[in-house]
TrEMBL record:
Recorded superkingdom: Bacteria
Keywords from the UniProt entry: Membrane, Transmembrane, Transmembrane helix
TM annotation in the entry: 6-24, 31-54
Protein name, entry field: Stage III sporulation protein AF
């Protein structure tokens, strides 16, 4: 629980530093991207702090391309 509190405090500090600058410069697209990436990183950090297993993106790629690779391999033999 202390780890999650630390993550949230770090996120609050990052927001306090970066968001006013983005708003002052009227960089709205950058603010949306910044917000999305910060939320994604926060969620992943909290999930890791709670020791929850999440799927590795490489596993998804292997699942998609393995049948294709096997098919090509049988054609080449």
């Amino acid at each position: 629980m202390l780890t999650i509190a630390g993550i949230l405090i770090a996120v609050a500090i990052i927001i306090a530093i970066d968001v006013p600058v983005l708003l002052r410069k009227k960089l709205h697209k950058e603010l949306w991207l910044f917000s999305f990436l910060l939320c994604l990183g926060t969620v992943l950090g909290i999930v890791q702090a709670l020791h929850i297993q999440i799927a590795n993106p490489m596993d998804w790629l292997i699942m998609v391309y393995k049948p294709v690779a096997d098919l090509v391999e049988t054609w080449l033999k």
